[in-house]
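TEACHING EXERCISE
Course module: macromolecular assemblies
Task: Read the component lines below, then compare them to the predicted structure of the full complex.
Student: A.B.
Group: 4
Components provided:
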Amino acid sequence: MPNTSLRGWGRTAPTRANVVPVRSAADVTAALAAAGPRGVIARGLGRSYGDPAQNAGGTVLDMTGLDRIHSVDADSGRVVVDAGVSLDALMRAALPFGLWLPVLPGTRQVTVGGAIGADIHGKAHHVVGSFGNHVESLDLVTADGRAHTLTPSDDLFWATVGGMGLTGVVVRAVLVLHHVETAYFKVDTEQIDNLDELMARQSVDDEKYAETVSWFDAVSTGAQFGRGLLMRANHATLDELPPKLRARPLRFDAPQLLTVPDVFPPGLLNRLTGKLFSEVWYRKSPTKLGAIQNITQFLHPLDIVGEWNRGYGPRGFLQYQFVVPLERGDVVRGVLDRMHAAGQVSALNVLKRFGEGNRAPLSFPRPGWTLCVDIPVNDGLGPLCDELDELVLDAGGRHYLAKESRTTPEAIRRGYPRLDEWRKVRDAADPTGVFTSDMSRRLELTS
Amino acid sequence: MIDAVGNPQSVLVMGGTSEIGLAVVEAFASDRPLRVVLAARKSDRLGAAQARLEKLGCAVETIEFDATAPETHSEVVRAAFAGGDIDVALVAFGLLGDNEVAWTDVDAAVELAQVNYTAAVSVGVALGKRMTEQGHGAIVAFSSVAGERARRSNFVYGSTKAGMDAFYSGLTEALRPAGVHVTVVRPGFVHTRMTEGLSPAPLSTTPEAVAAITVDAVRHRRELVWAPGPLRFVMSALRHVPRPLFRRLPV
Ligand SMILES: Cc1cc2nc3c(=O)[nH]c(=O)nc-3n(C[C@H](O)[C@H](O)[C@H](O)COP(=O)(O)OP(=O)(O)OC[C@H]3O[C@@H](n4cnc5c(N)ncnc54)[C@H](O)[C@@H]3O)c2cc1C
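Instructor-supplied answer key:
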């Protein structure tokens, strides 16, 4: 009997699978040979919100044991890593060499394999693109049990980037990191009164910053609706650091700011706590230019949020993330208005402008506005999200598969017009459909 | 698959012409169209049920199912799963029968017992097996308040429901480790074809109301619900009423 219950970060829709730990490429080949009719999917640290790393009744490969960093080359920035290495571990290993991972998501607790599978993006997307842009080659074990070294000249490489584990299992990758002088950021924070102004401000000067994002409050109403913080930064150079940090400029300074479960009892995330949180968050960061901040302060305040998934109660929560073309910024407002009218609260709203996308047919980022909101699952949320889907899709937008947990196959077909192109490459690599997941069944990604 | 907000993609109705079963499908389909498998004996009513659901945008398949032939049930359930995973299976068939005939006529009594109890058991075993293999899913069994405490007026029916209720309550526990959720629904008097001509009991309800409670129970992964909800308190009181008194109650 499939013996382990799995769910995603949103803690919804659990299913059971046979979890097989993987320590080598040979383990993957063996697991593929032993797979039953319900197929196989790889799982990293399970930081996707929905069900892409679940496979009900089948086999799930736990990749976190395949975790060696093979080499770090300080000059070229090239690192050779196993797929189960976490971005946190990789950063800790690379920083002493003055190397910085150019694409970091809102949590470092994701694996290299998961980062490739979802083609993740960070706050630097408008400058550096997404994770796949920094992969020089990857080793993929396909359905026949054989390993292939793929480079960006291969179609299968780009089908694997953003391919949600459905082309095979990534066992190793060569990544190219950036050089930095310090592990700190020089941050400009601007406190802005409402959403329109925030979006207008965020639309200018973006190219001057390596990293930009804004957070806003969607709980407060009226003139204060969408008041928020625009946070933009560049890597601090050595001489920009205060003297006391200059002694160890590459120190990985990543303290935990606050552990949330002690503050919020289960299920208490409601309008009241949402309002309180929004107030505190907004007040704590008045406009301030040129502040030196460490990685947690600037890049990973969401690591606080990471702990929140337990605070959403037994039905879990979902993150609704979409992108719409830049000229359709009105959809951001439209989505928030609809949510507000339906009485759904999202305490944390993150808005970012994407730059150019890459060649991968299922890669999420494309030039546009991307918004993520966290919503606890409750009655009425399903129909509301279906309405939001229409707003997003009618504007030519799409949903992020790493965060997706409830939309329809049609919505994905509309949002990803290159789905059939991806399927062709995938089907050639996996003609009998060995790779499958709860998400691929739910969204009919594979046939 | 059942998604994060509790929407299933496919529903199987064992007893595909059951009014409550169809009302549950319609309630799920009001949010999103579904793939539906109706398992029932071929009849005009089955055709009408199919047409009704197709009008809501559902993709409907029908398969032949005879509750009195338990030796065929594994095969029927296999066929129901042949088109893909079943997210929610409703065990929604049953006979009310005429109590005065049933307790005096061997054939009538056995038929009630076979349909309401034996078939419910064989179907439950087969569903449990398939859902365990697929690693997810929900089974909903429609029991009855009549199974809670047998009354003189319909104790044969009540006894079969008591048996099926006990079986599915046990199945809830047995399948829990497999990640399969079993919900027992205990409706009171429901205005349906089955109860036509009978005088309604207090707290009587409709198939739509039972359906709303059922959908909610599946979404919240509840194991036992009453329809309407307050019956739970009424029945827990009635269960302990001494016999001489119970006999004289107008229930
Ligand atoms: C608090 C928080 C903040 C986040 N912020 C961001 C953000 O800013 N930007 C962003 O892009 N994402 C963000 N995410 C999402 C996260 O980056 C992605 O879901 C990522 O894929 C998770 O990696 P994982 O190792 O946990 O993979 P999992 O969730 O376990 O798997 C994700 C997918 O990758 C596949 N996969 C995993 N390993 C392999 C492998 N070795 N070979 C092939 N396929 C594999 C799986 O099959 C699955 O389809 C955030 C998540 C959280 C919890």
